[in-house]
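User: Teach me something about this protein's shape.
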Amino acid sequence: MNTKKYKTVDEFLSDLSDEKGSQVKELREIILSADKELKEHIKWNSPSYIFENEDRITFNIVNKDDKVKLVLHMGAKRKEDKGGKPVIEDMTGLILWNSDIRGMISFDSTEDILAKREQLTGIIQRWLKVES
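Assistant: First, the predicted structure itself:
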């Protein structure tokens, strides 16, 4: 993936490898089907999803692990507590929490995403119910 600034999700997708493109497309479908109110745009040079006027889910593609990741976050209004208890319970163990309102979910492959589809849909739906 190069370092150009993306203006659209389609432009972003056109620069992905086949494997990462497949993962991102599968995750986009899961995210967008989780709630019809989600709006997709580019933030932090990656696809991001707005719910009730706040960015709540953003892709992280360029990272030291070279994995496709989703960042669950709550925009800029709510103060983050790095030592605080996460705002949702994650019984799946998929979320690596960075604070009470920011977590990351990593994926190894398209097959990994497909295997976690139901769990991920539930996480997204619970995440969006938390007031930001």
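Now, about its shape. The two ends are 32 Å apart (CA to CA). Residues 23 and 110 are 5 Å apart (CA to CA). If you'd like, I can walk through any region in more detail.
User: That's plenty for now, thanks!
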